[in-house]
Amino acid sequence: MAKITLENLAHSYLPNPSSEDDYALKELNHDWADGEAYALLGSSGCGKSTLLNLISGLLHPSQGRILFDDKDVTAAPTTQRNIAQVFQFPVVYDTMTVHDNLAFPLRNRSADAAYVRDRVQQIAEMIGMEDMLNRKARGLTADAKQKISLGRGMVREDVNALLFDEPLTVIDPHMKWELRTQLKSLHHEFGHTMIYVTHDQTEALTFADKVVVMYDGRVVQIGTPQQLFEQPEHTFVGYFIGSPGMNVLDAQVDGDTAVLAGTQIPLGKGFGALSGKVELGVRPEFTSLSTGDEGLPVTIKRVEDVGRHKIVRADFNGTEINVLAPEGADISPDMNRVVFDPTGINIYSNSWRVAPKVA
């Protein structure tokens, strides 16, 4: 295991980048704590895999340094970084048995035969392939081959870090849940530093101690699932985390009041003078429908019953607002106002969260 330090790290695929827009990964400074599980979360093209491949040594950064336990490994090849990496699509040796595929990283390091046998059996049980150890990998399904790749990545106990690049893409949904659970169990048991790339918020939030949310080549927030939900530091985090995501509305803010298209909304806390594009963000969980005079005037467009609750899609001046209502709630046509719980309101300036003024 290792603490991974990124110092002024940035990368461009262009030979002579001249502006920030030329960088696939914009400048990043961060310490990845020894033994923690991280998820890199974001949409396709945001820089997740670029960052992972810089850490593993498959890419050399355009600028900055990478340190493992304060040792500079920026120029070190992958083989000298003592990491295990599992890729999006399975990489197996078709002519080998499942057993020999799993044993390969251990035998390659001259591990004791008895240890290899026991460790392979342990990993095979973890990935549900203990009955297939003597089968050749050729002819196995894509999800079976990916389980072999996962197992081969996890078989070594002495690695500095385990890196996963969207490893469950080809795995069936039920097995995804089981393998995520096993990865979490492995992390708790052995304390490996783990970094897991995904565009699936469920995978990220159920796997990681800390989620690293990326947008347009930039890390916009690092935090626990609770922090990402309650205080999204960027409007993208609010939009990307949650189902449905955070409502984001143009606003004018004056002290402890926001004005949205002429309607005043109490914020419950004060803010200073704000510049740029100002927006109010509130998650559907902190909204409710009303028939009174308070709140935003809306028109209900449709109601979706998803079992645990209802999602109400309402229109406010051409902008959709999502409201979560209890499963048994009676949604009537005269409910033409949406009220916000002030404890769930966040204010943003140029997409970044503004901290309220301390009284």
TrEMBL record:
Similarity field: Belongs to the ABC transporter superfamily.
One Pfam family hit: OB_MalK
GO molecular function: ABC-type ferric iron transporter activity; ATP binding; ATP hydrolysis activity
Official protein name in the record: ABC transporter ATP-binding protein
Keywords for the protein's UniProt record, in alphabetical order: ATP-binding, Cell membrane, Membrane, Nucleotide-binding, Transport
The organism's taxonomic lineage, starting at the top: Bacteria, Pseudomonadati, Pseudomonadota, Alphaproteobacteria, Rhodobacterales
CDD domains recorded: ABC_Carb_Solutes_like
Single GO cellular component term: ATP-binding cassette (ABC) transporter complex, substrate-binding subunit-containing
InterPro entries referenced in this protein's UniProt entry, alphabetically: AAA+_ATPase, ABC_transporter-like_ATP-bd, ABC_transpr_FbpC, ABC_transpr_MalK/UgpC-like, Mo/tungstate-bd_C_term_dom, NA-bd_OB-fold, OB_MalK-like, P-loop_NTPase
Annotated ABC transporter domain residues: 4-241
Family matches, as Gene3D superfamilies: 2.40.50.100, Nucleic acid-binding proteins, P-loop containing nucleotide triphosphate hydrolases
